[in-house]
Amino acid sequence: MITAPTVPHDWGQQNEALRRALGRPLPAPGTPSSLDEQLLAVARRLTLYRPTDRMTDGARLSITFVVTGGAEASRPLLRVLPWPTDNITRGEYALHLRRIAHASRTQMGDAR
Asked: What is the pTM of this model?
């Protein structure tokens, strides 16, 4: 069997060029990129992990850090996430996030 030689590629240099062109850090691999995708990713996590527990401000912060990959990247998402009120459960909060994401997609003409 003949195999082609592998040539190492310097992805770091290419990523640095992209980061400079965009003027901001690149998201971590596998990180949802659009705000509505991030909202849906938060909603999925809340539904999968303890959906009947009370939604807290701490959970709101920590889950955005997990979904976006860090504190700096989570700022735009935190701006659109509502504050948990009235002893809402994580599952109910997820439902609100799905509605926000759907409204955003509909408004942008991208209802999927």
From this structure: 0.65
